[in-house]
Amino acid sequence: MIEVKDVYFSYDDREVLRGITLEIKQGEVFGLLGPNGAGKSTLILHLNGILKPKRGEIKIKGINPVKEPKKVRRIVGIVFQDPNDQLFMPTVFEDVAFGPYNLGLRGEELKEKVIESLRLVGMEGYIDRETKELSFGEKKRIAIATVLAMDPEVIVFDEPFANLDFRGKKLVENIIRRLRTQGRTVILASHEPEYLLNCDRIALISEGRLVKVGPPQDVLIPELLRENDLDVPPLIELFYDLNLGIPKNLDEAMDLILRKIRAP
Ligand SMILES: Nc1ncnc2c1ncn2[C@@H]1O[C@H](COP(=O)(O)OP(=O)(O)OP(=O)(O)O)[C@@H](O)[C@H]1O
């Protein structure tokens, strides 16, 4: 689905991506983990042709985003880290309608798409609000709706949980769960391992290099996280020490602990 082949990128003469090679399969929930400045956002901006590799190549379903950015942008939707980079229209309706309007939707069909997308992020009551009046968390949810409204096969979330309260985080988790059941490909970039427990695979990136890629139990190793300036959540530390594997969530964590306690 997504092939990243030996990609290098520099801002002026500062090299930020140094030979990244990755393959992401259709329907995968794929985590991009790395400390601040590792190059996660830079890599993401390559996936729909906003940035062009200095060396190497990217293919999305066989299409090169540099050569055919419009085609690729119909496949890959990116939810930017800062919603202010995503929202630029006066009202919420206009912001969410912008993408589907460009895809050809009009009238009732367009309105229904906007309402449906806002409902998915719990913001249908905000349809006529002025975007600039909204709080950061509200803007973040509208930004997600603008991407959902275009029904992309691949959705990339850059630090989707940053600056969200408990309810906002749960809502994003539920959206990701729904996208997974729909068989969409989801990419989640974060510097916090605890948000990537549920991923199928995780790529650990540091200083523009791929350090490791694999399922959570192979990548979320306390020593490896520390070596790469990442936080080690107590849950991961505990489960690693007890040799219990990596739980996907608190329910599974409880289950694993109870099984361990009850084991003869
Ligand atoms: N537009 C830009 N011009 C120059 N340098 C940039 C630009 N954007 C990012 N950088 C630099 O590139 C490096 C990688 O940044 P990037 O935003 O890709 O990292 P990141 O892993 O997403 O970090 P974070 O977790 O802080 O979002 C950083 O050193 C950053 O300062």
Main traits of this protein?
264 residues, alpha/beta, Rossmann fold, 2 domains, six-stranded mixed β-sheet, binds adenosine-5'-triphosphate
Give a structural overview.
The longest helix has 16 residues, at 166-181. This protein is of the alpha/beta class and 264 residues long. The radius of gyration is 19 Å and the shape is globular. The model has no long low-confidence stretch (mean pLDDT 92). The chain has helices at residues 40-46, 69-75, 92-102, 107-120, 136-148, 166-181, 216-219, 222-227, 234-241, 250-262, and strands spanning 2-11, 14-24, 29-33, 55-60, 76-79, 154-158, 185-190, 201-206, 209-214. Strands 5-6-7-3-8-9 form a 6-stranded mixed sheet, with helices on both faces. Strands 2-1-4 form a 3-stranded antiparallel sheet, with helices on one face. The N and C termini lie far apart (45 Å). It has 10 helices and 9 strands. The chain folds into 2 domains: 2-220, P-loop containing nucleotide triphosphate hydrolases (Rossmann fold, 3-Layer(aba) Sandwich), CATH 3.40.50.300; 233-264, no CATH class. Adenosine-5'-triphosphate binds at residues 11, 16, 34, 36-42, 81, 191. Adenosine-5'-triphosphate is lined by residues 11, 16, 34, 36-42, 81, 191. It is found in: Cell membrane. Residues 2-232 form the ABC transporter domain. Keywords: ATP-binding, Cell membrane, Membrane, Nucleotide-binding, Translocase, Transport. It is a peripheral membrane protein. This is ABC transporter ATP-binding protein.
